[in-house]
Amino acid sequence: MLPYKKIIHQLSVTFQPLLETLNSERRVFVGRYRRFPVAYTALSYLFVSMAFCYYPIVNHWLSGFIMMSLPLAILLGLAACIYLFCQQQKMIATAGIIWVLFSFVVVKRLVGIQDGDRDLSQAQTLNVLSFNSETFPVTGRSKIDASLLKADIACFQEYSPNAQLERQYTDKLLKLTCFDEDREIGLALFSKYPIVNQYSRIWNREKAPNINGFLCADIAYGADTIRVVNVHLWSMGVRTEQALKALKAGHLGRFSLELLDTFQRMKEGFEHRSEQLQEVESYVAGSRYPVIICGDFNETPISYSYGKLSQNFRNAFEEAGQGLGFTLNRHPYCVRIDQQFFSADWHIKTCQTLSGVSFSDHFPVLAQYVLKKSLVVPTDVLAQHQPTRPAAN
């Protein structure tokens, strides 16, 4: 017998018991799956949805729907575990319960726990505001109360020029497009500290206003430079209230059409936001400056964008918020789609949703940061070297 054939023969003899054991276990699993197909499918779906949320390596639009359904998958998985326990399938049921418990690592994203990193009461803080202002609609008032939107750095989405607000800041970065004949709309970043470098982009959108994009500003803060990114990812324009109205009126045909339209808009949104996030990440990945990313992400914490950023950044509300912090001031209300993320260079002190500011269809998000370096290095001196400002892209 040739030498390589002897080796193959020896390996087959050595691993034959293992292969027989695996084949036997496969037959047992298949047999049990056939006995309890619904329960096993529910646990498998929980595993897949949890895996996508925890490590979102697949950016296909279908994964967006799978991640969004995680709460339902947890309930179905828990019910499957209880059922399997009753059927004396204790091993699989126990494994399922363990996986249900692991899923709460992701569910934690939905709730803010205000514990803070350490005692930062005496540290110098940087207040960062993020707000989709819906072009500052006026409801019974001639002017907004600009003092409610005062911070060290303020990032606005769907912003239209407002002199009263802009007077509160010393430096600004704007990227606006024509919304109609007499109004501009877009992104704005205002700062009480000098903006020393800037990048910007508005994504083109056919048959719709070009309001989605990002601003990236390098800002001289104390003896350092920080990078702040204002993001407005693809807006879906989902009209859930239209579907509910049709259902209440008994118009099932109209209700079905609205659901189909909602599905198409969400699918399109998942596709475009994953592409847009990749471009945003190119400006912050490996940044030598401390980074803060904030804005309207148009996705919940159980989503591709949130999970992808969570791999390298921490979420401000998740770390230092309180309660659920819903940021949408319209139907369906119970979602948090406005976020702030920060790099490991920062301590987070507080993060809150300003639900008292209600003139927009979003609520502002205000967070307080402490630069870790500032706890060692004084921050009362501006950066000695400030690069020349290039024009915005």
Automatic annotation (TrEMBL):
The keyword Nucleotide-binding does not apply. It comes from Spirosoma radiotolerans. Its cofactor is Mn(2+); Mg(2+). Keywords: DNA damage, DNA repair, Endonuclease, Exonuclease, Hydrolase, Magnesium, Membrane, Metal-binding, Nuclease, Transmembrane, Transmembrane helix. GO terms for molecular function: endonuclease activity; exonuclease activity; metal ion binding. The keyword Hydrolase applies. GO terms for biological process: DNA repair. CDD domains: EEP-2 (cd09084). The chain crosses the membrane at residues 36-57, 63-85, 92-111. It comes from the Bacteria. Residues 277-362 form the Endonuclease/exonuclease/phosphatase domain. This is Endonuclease/exonuclease/phosphatase. PANTHER family: TRAF AND TNF RECEPTOR-ASSOCIATED PROTEIN (PTHR15822), TYROSYL-DNA PHOSPHODIESTERASE 2 (PTHR15822:SF4).
